[in-house]
Amino acid sequence: MKRTQIQLHDAQLKWLKTEALEQGISMSQLLRDIVDSFRMQAERDQQVDSNKAFALEAVGRFSSTRTNAS
């Protein structure tokens, strides 16, 4: 584990302290949990985007450009 230093606005620090106290964990642990949660959501979003692009590409392979002449 690496040590780092961050600067927070007063409102952010107040929320962080209150939330950590309510959860019974340190502010450091709460920040690690928040970063992990954010990272997992970003990875899920990236996977959804990738799946969507793959699906759109697959659908495009089966589209027809024929027109009916009447």
Brief summary:
With 70 residues, this protein is an all-alpha fold. The chain has two helices and no strands.
Topology:
Blueprint: H1 10-23, H2 27-61
Helix pairs in contact: 1-2
Q: How would you describe this protein?
A:
The chain has 70 residues and is mainly alpha-helical. Helices cover 70% and strands 0% of the residues. It has a domain at 26-54. It is built from 2 helices and no strands. α1 (10-23) packs across α2. The radius of gyration is 23 Å and the shape is rod-shaped. The model has no long low-confidence stretch (mean pLDDT 88).
Output the keywords.
70 residues; mainly alpha; 70% helix; rod-shaped
Q: Give the structural class.
A: mainly alpha
- Give the overall form: rod-shaped
Q: What is the rounded distance between the termini? A: 72 Å
The beta-strand count equals 0
Strand content: under 5%
The Cα radius of gyration reads 23 Å
Helix count from the secondary structure assignment: 2
Order of helical and strand elements = HH
Largest sheet: none
**Mean pLDDT across every amino acid position:** 88
Helical percent range?
over 70%
Q: What assembly state would you assign to the polypeptide chains in this entry?
A: single chain
- Unreliable stretches (pLDDT < 50, length at least 5) are none
